[in-house]
């Protein structure tokens, strides 16, 4: 909210449609919008129709987000939502913060809900400005324990929902970038070719 000059009444300033931001910044750098900050005990989602954030659900008792979670704008996964990102970043963040990130890999995930199974991969990213994870160039640079912890968190975070996750393995940086670019609606439209009629 902002106030008009000479007027004490607040004026609502519309938020940009964060889901419609361009995906790529330049080669190797992609935009990620933070939804749920590290340490949160509830899942926060962005509604691209209403252009606002809302609390989707609480996590099970005793669980908090170990990293910032967000999404890649201008993408769409098989679950119908923008593609998910796990942000390795020790600095504070908040819903709506847009970060320039490099992809280091992806965890391939099959998600089953109400008898329907879709891919819901989680991409691991590091912000360009991050100094703590400079040595992480590829997901294999994360320890096996750290990768297992990410899988355990994802499993526990949906424990009280009617969802089941199956982990299909980890993809390296190059494969993850290809997967992400294939999820861009513009890329999907181009691969289908022009519409007839």
3D structure, described in words:
The chain is an alpha+beta fold. The chain has one domain (17-190): Inorganic Pyrophosphatase, CATH 3.90.80.10. The protein contains three helices and twelve strands, in the order βββββββββββαβαα. It has helices spanning 144-157, 173-182, 185-192, and strands spanning 2-3, 10-11, 24-26, 29-36, 42-47, 52-58, 68-71, 84-87, 98-113, 116-119, 122-127, 163-171. The strands form three sheets. Strands 4-7-8-11-9 form a five-stranded mixed β-barrel. A hairpin with a 4-residue loop joins strand 5 (42-47) and strand 6.
Please summarize the sheet with the most strands. 5 strands, mixed, barrel
- Given helix and strand content, the structural type is alpha+beta
Low-confidence stretches: 188-197
Question: What would you call the shape?
Answer: globular
Full CATH superfamily name: Inorganic pyrophosphatase
Q: Which CATH class is shown?
A: Alpha Beta
Total count of strands: 12
Query: What's the helix-strand series?
Result: EEEEEEEEEEEHEHH
- Can you tell me the CATH topology? Inorganic Pyrophosphatase
Helicity level: 10-25%
Q: Mean pLDDT, as a whole number? A: 88
Q: Please give the radius of gyration in angstroms.
A: 18 Å
Report the β-strand fraction as a percent range: 35-45%
Kindly list the characteristics that best describe this protein:
single chain, 197 residues, alpha+beta, Inorganic Pyrophosphatase, five-stranded mixed barrel, two-stranded antiparallel ribbon
């Amino acid at each position: 909210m902002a106030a008009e000059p000479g007027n004490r009444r607040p004026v609502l300033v519309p938020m940009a449609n964060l889901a419609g931001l361009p995906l790529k910044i330049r080669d190797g750098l992609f935009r990620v919008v933070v939804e749920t900050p590290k340490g949160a005990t509830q899942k926060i989602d962005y509604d691209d129709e209403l252009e606002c954030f809302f609390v989707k659900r609480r996590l099970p008792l005793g669980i908090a987000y170990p990293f910032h979670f967000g999404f890649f704008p201008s993408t769409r996964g098989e679950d119908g939502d923008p593609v998910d990102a796990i942000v390795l970043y020790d600095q504070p963040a908040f819903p709506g913060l847009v970060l320039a990130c490099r992809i280091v890999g992806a965890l391939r995930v099959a998600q089953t809900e109400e008898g329907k199974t879709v891919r819901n991969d989680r991409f691991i990213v590091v912000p360009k400005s991050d100094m703590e994870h400079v040595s992480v160039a590829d997901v294999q640079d994360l320890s096996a324990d750290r990768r297992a912890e990410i899988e355990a968190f994802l499993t526990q975070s949906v424990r009280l929902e009617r969802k089941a996750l199956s982990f299909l393995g980890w993809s390296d940086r190059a494969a993850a970038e290809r997967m992400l670019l294939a999820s861009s609606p513009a890329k999907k439209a181009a691969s289908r070719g022009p519409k007839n009629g």
